[in-house]
Amino acid sequence: MTIKTTLALAAALCLATLPAFAQETGDPGPAYVQQSLAGKKVVLIPLALGFDLAQGWNHYIGTEVRGFGGVWETRDPNWDTAAGAQAITDLISSADKPAAILVHTPDLTSYSRLFKRAQDAGIFVIQVDNRSNFASDAFVGSNWETLGELEAKAAVAACGEGSSKKIGLIQGDQVNSSSLDQYAGIAKVLKDHPDFEIVGAPDSNWDVTTARNVATTLLQQHPEVCSIIDFWDNTAAGTAAAIRDAGLTDKVKLVTTGGGEELDCKALEDGTFHAVVMTDVKGQSRDISALLKFLLQSGLKPGQAKSWIYTLETATTKADLKPGTCWSLKDVQAAEAALAK
Amino acid sequence: MSVLKSGTLSQERIVFLFAIVLFAAYAVLLDGFLAPNNLVAILRSVSVLGILAVGMGVVVIGRGIDLSMVAVMAMATAWQLAMMNAGTSPLIATSIVLAGVVAVGIINGLLIAYAEVPPVFATLATASFVFGLVRSRFIVQDAIPVPPSASFILEFGQARLAHMPIEVVMFAVAAFLSFLTLRFTKFGRYVYYMGDNFEAARTMGIPVRPMVIGQYVVSALIAWLAGLITAAGLQSINTRVVNSTLLYDVILVVVIGGIGLSGGKGGMRNVVIGALLIGIMLNGMTILDLPNIYQNLIKATILLVALIVDSRLNPRDEQVGQQGDI
């Protein structure tokens, strides 16, 4: 072979391989994903950023969104419904519109009109954790009725056959779907156990001190209750204090629900809580991330389809605890802090 | 209104009578209301509210109002616990927070006494400032637990004196100390003079401006005490309380007890009576299993009635009414 032919061959080879570089594997996926997802803005608007669930979503979903080349942002209404509405309005009218918003709704109706407007403006609306009356592109979170059923079953089991069969409830409020649906679930289970009775069902209004006061009164009136179901682990801290004050720690089994953060596991470990129906935040965040990837690639228009993706919940007791059952807010915060640097 | 004006039925007496009637009615109608433990629970449930009302009472008697109390209560305690959680020694954390709390009181006082900002606006602004600063700079979440290393705080929360929970004891101590101060010290008498007629007090030579600062420092310190007691009982502090109706409940206790918002009237006895009425009312409504919204409605109605009675009993007159009044 002369040098000329060798060079020609080499050149031909190079030419032949050039297009092959672009689709080495013949897989259209990466390019399509890149084209559909890169630079897409996703904004999380929780009730407030300062509590475990929201911090978990921010970290786990945020990592995924940044991972696929998207832009991740959060807004913190700090428990103020009006501030949340303002944040959504601003996003709808902003020049740099998000591709999707993830909203933790405060009640059944407040944001419904805004969700419609956001969809009309081409923004996917995913509701997380609390449902509203508006069926947006997706809801990801607990089926709160099922969750209530799990709590009631845990309470019935905790009381046992020989007990007083009297149960107290510390509800959240009368407007939030998570509270209303939990109550419905509990009522449903107790229908199958007609010998069990709800002796009191005050609201905590999601406030820990109120929970403590109403639980104190409830225990004072009905010291024979065998179990209390508190509708949120944050307020259950107050209910637990009331049980402790009454000297009934061993007699009254406290069942609650929460984000499965380490504090939940600690409280199960030391007997403060008897059972916690835990929201699997990591799994839920993974569901939301997958859904975002799907919606943004699907070619669907906002408002065209709807789905409900319920997170699998289980009632966890001390016996179920394993390392890794709970996630650590501290670790999540450390990871976020490292990212900010 | 003749009965009211004749002085035989002051607002304080009306409220006291109302509390007794309510108490008697509940005692007859509700099983278990009179149980000793329930009575203790009533006292305990209003202790933190009562402590805050003691601080608010002092300020209102001096013709001011401190809307930053709940923010100071929650944020000072949260900051302190956050520092302790991060490994700062309790003594250092407490000293830093003490300085911070006093500074908030001084800023409130300076704004009101020297910049002559009406107290409603000055303290509303500092409340937002304190909340925003601590929430954004010093703590990362709403609920801050008491660190396991600070077991003395937990033990304090469990302590009882003569079968009374520590919250009740602290409320009694705070109310009694404030009573002594208001009755028997120069500071206390000056507070009444200033509340009664600010201009006259100033003409008289009372150092009204430093006095105003002093009052707001006192209310800030009392607010912090309320926060510490809350944390001791619940083993954590939740800053969400800043968004709750607690602040309005504090004002409710003060006004309903008969400390006129126009200043110069009433004392710690009114705070105690106001707190007891609220405690009895809420306890009974909870035993009755009334939903929260109705409880709020009833509370709000009573506040409205109290405000109307207050304005009839303590009418504004042109001599003492002045710009900046609440």
Automatic annotation (TrEMBL), chain A:
Location of this chain's protein in the cell: Cell envelope
UniProt keyword annotation of Cytoplasm present: no
Gene3D superfamilies linked: 3.40.50.2300
Primary localization: other
Keywords carried by this UniProt record: Signal
Chain segments annotated as coiled-coil in the UniProt record: none
InterPro entries per record: Peripla_BP_I, SBP_2_dom
GO molecular function annotation: carbohydrate binding
GO cellular component, as recorded: cell envelope
Residue intervals of the Periplasmic binding protein domain: 75-297
Secretion signal span: 1-22
Family: Belongs to the bacterial solute-binding protein 2 family.
UniProt-recorded name of the protein: Sugar ABC transporter substrate-binding protein
Organism: Pleomorphomonas carboxyditropha
From TrEMBL, chain B:
A Pfam family this chain is assigned to: BPD_transp_2
Transmembrane segments: 14-34, 41-61, 91-114, 120-140, 161-184, 213-234, 246-264, 270-290
Membrane disposition: Multi-pass membrane protein
A GO term, aspect molecular function: transmembrane transporter activity
Coiled coil regions in record: none
Keywords, comma-separated and alphabetical: Cell inner membrane, Cell membrane, Membrane, Transmembrane, Transmembrane helix, Transport
Localization terms from the record: Cell membrane
Protein name listed in UniProt: ABC transporter permease
Phylogenetic placement of the source organism: Bacteria, Pseudomonadati, Pseudomonadota, Alphaproteobacteria, Hyphomicrobiales
